[in-house]
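FORM 7B: Structural annotation worksheet

SECTION A. Query
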Amino acid sequence: MKTCRSLLFTLTLSICVNTLFAQTQASHTDSLMRSGIALTDAGKFTEAIAKYDEVLRAMPGAKPVLYEKATTLTAMGKYDDAIAIFEKLLADTKTPNIYAGIGDAYDMKGDYQTASNYYLKGIAQWPKDRNLWFNLSVCYTRQKKYPQAQGAAAEAIKADPRHFTSYRNYAIAAYLQGRNAEALLGLSNYLVFPMPPNQSAGARQILRQILRASPKPDAEPIAKLQQETIANAVGAATVGKENLKPIDSLNLQLTAVYKAIKAQEDQYGSPFFSKYFGNYFGDIATSNYMDVFTHVVAISLSPQENLAWLKGRLDDVKSFNQWLASQKRVME
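SECTION B. Predicted structure
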């Protein structure tokens, strides 16, 4: 009986020690992973890789660790090393993030066709994945395939209407085709999102260039129609009005342009644009909130003045946000 008790005690002690060791090891590797991700986010890639490798020595083949290591290698410019890991992961497990990761590595390497192929393979399985569509849009833009880039950005918006960078991609791709109405409303939507002025300054500058642009006689028909629509609306908005403040002039111009674009319905050949953008901004133009909207759009043009104006009308800003949230936007 004494021997049985001794054996039982030994087994129990062994189980406790093994359990405690496993828990301690798991806690240690979790800590290493968190440290690695934090180092990657801080741009300390070499130190991050060292953390991931330490975890992999304890947990060989751990897929989350391999994924983080591969994305970090991509950030370091070690594209072939990253691709080798992503291919290993894809051979065993297929997820949208892995397709996006290997696509990014090829994209950054400059092999745009292979990158596009991987994004499209992922999209074939996950057609509503915003990240794949967004990355494909960036890749098409780098290839100067602007219609495809705009289309991919539109799909990213449909998948996630809160992803503000997709609106910027959509707008830039449209602008590079001369499709200024689509670019203007894409930028207008992008600028509604809260962000530091330095992140939105470039978008506001392009918006101003669009409002000042003259139609190009050699533009393709739809682009020419959009350019003429904006030029005519801008001209009519301020004719005969003198000594306008820049913000008041911008308000009149945007109001006129939004109304003119909505009035053209689907003449641009894109039901998505007409319904999701055209109707929405046309409704803003006829609302009581254009002053608020224009000051939001113009923040980076004159930050102190416009922020002070908005802070002095917090009730109007709140009402505008509530109104925006109540609007039902149609995708198709």
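SECTION C. Observations
Residues 2-41 form the longest helix (40 residues). The CA atoms of residues 36 and 51 lie 5 Å apart.

SECTION D. Sign-off
Analyst initials: ____
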